[in-house]
Each structure stands twice: as structure tokens, then as C-alpha cells.
Design brief:
Blueprint lengths: L1 H5 L3 H15 L4 H11 L30 H4 E2 L1 H4 L5 E3 L3 E6 L2 E3 L5 E10 L4 E13 L2 E12 L8 H11 L7 E15 L5 E15 L33 E15 L5 E13 L6 E13 L5 E13 L8 E3 L13 E3 L1 E12 L12 E12 L7 E10 L2 E7 L6 E7 L5
Antiparallel strand pairs: 1-4, 2-3, 3-5, 4-5, 5-6, 6-7, 7-8, 8-9, 9-10, 10-11, 11-12, 12-13, 13-16, 14-15, 16-17, 17-18, 18-19, 19-20
Length: 420
């Protein structure tokens, strides 16, 4: 298997890349002098800091300057090379560490990571690289052994990790895979970053397998409360079909930010396999959209949408997405509906109560909340609806929702990242 052979070879391949970068990465004489002057005012103890100065993007390699030193190429970003950790019911604590390799003009940037997964007792390799071909074109590559999910769209890493740590509630399903991916990407942005876009075309090779918890787990990831909960930290992951998916991928993503509260984000990715565990072809389209805009007076409207559509035969289970529970449809059990066809829409109208505003934390708000969605295998899903009201204050969100078809009513308490 291509992925099984190449992923363990990640470390020697990246060591070779580092050697080539040291041999070939010669800044121009002026650029070398600029870096020397800037570095003189930087403490040698700042191992996690980035380079103090960069030459102009068009300075190029070569010239009559000195060779690039090891300290100019190898960085330990974030906190001495440690990246943001995560916590889930399959891996436990995932703690990435590794250096970043970069030429002084950032034409070539690579990350070499070792990710410790406490519950699995494993260290997974991961490497990614970006090569700027032109001002608007770059090549990117990824090699990794990882625990993957198709449900990250519904809850971000921070809140999912905190929910798992404190109450054993994990809003995602997982599978393990060796993955190799490469793409040619075109990108652009306005100077003020109010508009950004990118489009890419490439290929992906993935060798997948199921991961625990299974139907009869013998041990569980630790949680502060609700330990060994069949609906929480020992909720089984759906089994997938072990095998290889080799596919062409293409996508486009765009971001727009206007004045005041106006913003929009959209992304679409198409995966077209020519090799998969199941017989027959199943092209899959995944789309996301977010829109925020002012309405009447100080009120705002926010709409979030997610869709997965599959053509041809049914997709293998490692391409299923799920919904249900606090993060999507609260009147349904957690991730109760799933498949290779999914539709979801969340619309929230917010009315700020400015008379109750407080310094620093702002004003509470209230407004109608409407959610609709469903998921099924190889057919358009039957849609469930939730209708109700959301009240929010700073990072706290309280929803009261009812399913008009079943009359089931739920009250939920959640959170959101603060905005300033």
C-alpha cells in the first residue's frame, strides 16, 4: 500500500528536505545583511519566535551572500514547537510537537510533527509543506498518520475538547488513516484581507481503518464527570470498511468581510475516487456556507449551512457525515443520523438588549432560532426541524427548542467564542 510505505518514511524524507534547503537557500547579499542587522537586536533565548526580518519575496535564491544558517531555517513556533492540543474519546490527549522549516523568504515552508496520542499509546508522524511557485500559485503536500473525522464542521476543536474533558461528551465520530495529499493551489486576497479566495486541484491517497471505542470497550478516555457513559466517552465509533481510497480532489473557498457585521464564507470540495473499498464509483461533493448580515436596526441575521451530496454508488462509511445532538439538532440523540447524503441549515435572528449592556462583556441578546437537517445513505434525507428561541450573554448561549413533528422539547446550554 502506497500510504503505508510512505508515511513511515516521512522523517528521512524531511531530513533530506532540510539538507537541500540549507544547501540551496542563499539569500541575496542585501537580504543577508538585513537579516544580520535585525537578528542583532533579538535575544538568542527566543527559540519559539519567528525570524526578525524577511527579504523581499522576489529576492530569490542564489547570489553572493553567505549560506543560510541552521537557525534561519529551523524554527520552533507557538510554544517551543508545541502546537494546540486536543482531547477526544478515541485518542485521549493529542499533543503535537515539531519544528517548522522555512527559507528566509518563506518560499518554502514545512512542518514536521510528532503527535502523541495518550489513549492509543502511539506517536503519529505528520508532515506538510508549501512551496510558492508564483505570487498567486503554490504547491502543497501532506503526509500523515492520523485520527480523522467528517464531523468537524459542526463543532470546533476547543469546545469539543472541553466538553469531552469535563462531561465526556464528544460530538464527532472518528476513524484512523494513513493519508498522502498533494495539490496545486491558486490564491488571492485584498490588501486589507477583507476578501480572500483560493482554488485547488490535486490527489489524495488514504488507507483507512476503524478505531475505538468499539461496541464493548475495556477502558475509556478519562472525563471529569459521567465516566463510562454509553452516550458519551464510550459511545462507539461507527465501523468503516478497511481499505484504500485514491481520488482526485478539487475545491474552492472564499471569504468576504464587509463593514459592521457583514461577512460571508463559502467552500466546496469535490472528491472523485478511482479506487475505493466498495465496487463502483461514488463522487462526493461537500459544501459549507456562513452568512452574517445586519437586519432591522441593530438586529442581525446569521445563517450556517452544510451539505454532503454523493453521486454514483453509495460511498464507503469513512465518507459518512453525522448530525444530531447539542451541536446540530438538539431534539435528536447525539449523531443519531448519518450517511453520504446530508443537508443542514441553521438560522438565528439576534435582537440585542442594549439597555442591559455591561462594560467589557456587552449586551445580552435574544431571538428566534430555526434549525433543519437530516442525513441518510444514498438518498436525500428526511428532514427534522427545531424551532425556538436563543438567549445569549457574552460566551453563554441558552436555547429552548421544539420539534414540531414529535413535540419533543429541549433546553440546552452552550457557549461561543467571544468577539471584541
Amino acid at each position: 500500500m502506497l500510504a503505508r510505505v510512505l508515511v513511515p518514511a516521512l522523517v528521512p524524507a524531511l531530513v533530506l528536505m532540510l539538507m537541500l534547503m540549507l544547501m540551496l537557500g542563499r539569500p541575496s547579499g542585501a537580504a543577508a545583511q538585513q537579516d544580520t542587522r535585525a537578528a542583532a537586536g533579538v535575544s538568542a533565548a527566543s527559540g519559539s519566535a519567528g525570524r526578525a526580518a524577511h527579504p523581499a519575496p522576489d529576492s530569490g535564491a542564489g547570489g553572493d551572500g553567505e549560506r543560510v544558517s541552521l537557525g534561519d531555517v529551523v524554527l520552533l513556533p507557538v510554544v517551543f514547537g508545541f502546537r494546540a492540543p486536543s482531547y477526544d474519546r478515541s485518542d485521549g490527549l493529542s499533543l503535537p510537537w515539531g519544528p517548522q522549516l522555512a527559507l528566509p523568504d518563506d518560499r518554502v515552508v514545512a512542518n514536521v510533527l510528532a503527535i502523541y496520542r495518550s489513549h492509543l499509546g502511539r506517536v503519529d508522524p505528520r508532515g506538510d509543506a508549501t512551496v510558492e511557485v508564483t505570487r498567486r500559485m503554490r504547491l502543497r503536500a501532506l503526509l500523515e498518520r492520523a485520527t480523522l473525522t467528517n464531523d468537524a464542521w459542526s463543532v470546533n476543536d476547543v469546545f469539543n475538547s472541553l466538553a469531552m474533558l469535563f462531561v465526556g461528551l464528544d460530538g464527532r465520530n472518528y476513524f484512523r488513516a494513513d493519508r498522502i495529499e498533494g495539490a496545486l493551489e491558486w490564491h488571492g486576497a485584498r490588501t486589507d484581507e477583507s476578501e480572500r479566495w483560493r482554488a485547488y486541484l490535486g490527489a489524495r491517497d488514504e488507507l483507512g481503518a476503524s478505531v475505538g471505542p468499539g461496541l464493548s470497550p475495556t477502558h475509556e478516555v478519562w472525563a471529569l464527570f459521567d465516566r463510562r457513559d454509553r452516550h458519551g466517552n464510550i459511545r462507539p465509533n461507527p465501523a468503516i470498511e478497511r481499505g484504500r481510497i485514491v481520488a482526485a480532489i478539487a475545491g474552492v473557498a472564499a471569504h468576504w468581510r464587509g463593514p459592521t457585521t457583514r461577512s460571508a464564507d463559502a467552500s466546496v470540495e469535490l472528491e472523485a475516487p478511482w479506487s475505493a473499498p466498495r465496487a463502483g464509483r461514488s463522487e462526493q461533493l461537500t459544501a459549507d456556507g456562513r452568512l452574517a448580515m445586519p437586519a432591522l436596526g441593530a438586529t442581525t441575521l446569521a445563517v450556517t449551512a452544510h451539505a454532503v451530496l454523493t453521486a454514483g454508488g453509495p460511498a464507503p462509511p469513512q465518507r459518512f457525515s453525522y448530525l444530531g445532538g447539542l451541536n446540530t439538532l438538539p431534539t435528536l440523540p447525539l449523531l443519531a443520523r448519518g450517511g453520504d447524503e446530508l443537508l443542514f441549515l441553521d438560522a438565528l435572528y439576534t435582537i440585542p438588549l442594549r439597555a442591559l449592556a455591561l462594560p467589557l462583556v456587552g449586551a445580552p441578546s435574544i431571538g428566534p432560532h430555526y434549525i433543519v437537517g437530516g442525513a441518510a445513505v444514498h438518498r436525500l434525507p428526511r428532514l427534522a426541524q427545531n424551532v425556538g428561541v436563543r438567549a445569549s450573554f457574552f460566551v453563554l448561549e441558552v436555547d429552548g427548542l421544539v420539534d414540531p413533528a414529535t413535540r419533543r422539547t429541549v433546553f440546552t446550554v452552550g457557549g461561543a467564542l467571544p468577539t471584541f
